[in-house]
Amino acid sequence: MGGINLAARPAGVEFEGTVFRLENPERVATTFDAHAGNIAADHRYSGPGLGAIYGATAPETALAEIEHYGLTAGRVSVSKQVSLGNVLDLTNSGVRGELGVTLEQITGDSYATTHQLGNLARSNGYNGILAPSARYPGGSNLVIFP
Amino acid sequence: MSDLDVLITEYPGDAAWRNFVEVFQPAWVERPDKEKFTSTIGDTDLAVVLAGTLDGHASSWFERPIGALKGRSPREVLREYPNGEFALRTLVMRMSK
Q1: B54/A71 Cβ within 8 A
Q2: What are the pLDDT digits (tens) for B32-67?
Q3: Where would I find the H helices in A68-139?
Q4: Is the model's pTM score more than 0.80?
Q5: How far, in Å, are A7, B1, B78 from residue A54 at the CA level?
Q6: Nearest by CB to A71, which of B3, B19, B95?
Q7: Rg (Cα) of chain A, in Å, rounded?
Q8: Is A78 in a helix, a strand, or coil?
């Protein structure tokens, strides 16, 4: 398997829908903000210093994402209606093919490929990424760049 | 490569970790119950982050088997696994959204 095709520019898509998160009750108000903790964290498509908002496109996916880390205690479900243009759709196998990445590469435990993809998407002007969930097969997450 | 090895090899580095811990320092300084977290968790930086992210659930989380740690508890990883502190640092930086 070669590296990412850095010259690829798959057409962005329009995302219109509801995204879900499970959050501590006292942080519900800021859960969709790129706050300091979000920016300093190390997320799948956004390494430290970048920040991005992650929301699952279905409640069961949101649950699976935090169950993996043992974080369900005390969490409440929060949702938000989102309309976002020019989204890099990595749930589309054709797009992954254009970029030269596999589903396994972007849903595995390593963030090496996904950090590269996140940086590539930002630098190429996409507003976010629709990504397959690593924790809920068939599920997806919307990553919104701040 | 095991899951833990990925967490260790992809540790974002001390500078990124320090920046991350600093986010939670102001709230930590104000806490009257620091001892509760440091006595359970041991590692002060981890205690600062876990108190800030998990609050009252931090101690029970630290003792419980975690899927992301392949069924090990954070305590086990920190105390018994070589370079376990780097695995835990990476884990908490990944899980705090």
Answers
A1: yes
A2: 999 999 999 999 999 999 999 999 999 999 999 999
A3: 93-99, 103-107, 112-123
A4: yes
A5: 26, 27, 28
A6: B95
A7: 15
A8: strand
Determine the Cα–Cα distance for residues B7 and A131; give it in Å rounded to an integer: 21
Residue A14 buriedness (CB in 10 A; 0-12 / 13-18 / 19+): exposed
Tokens of A74: 């005390």
Domain ranges (residues) in chain B:
3-95
Test A42 with B12 for CB contact under 8 angstroms. yes
- Smallest Cβ distance to A48: which of B16, B55, B68? B16
Which residues in chain A have Cβ-Cβ distances shorter than 8 Å to B90? Answer: 42
B56/A109 CB distance under 8 A: no
| CA B6/CA A65 separation, integer angstroms | 18
Is the CA virtual torsion A127, A83, A77, B56 positive or negative? positive
| Res. B7: pLDDT tops 90 | yes
Residue ranges per structural domain of chain A: 13-144
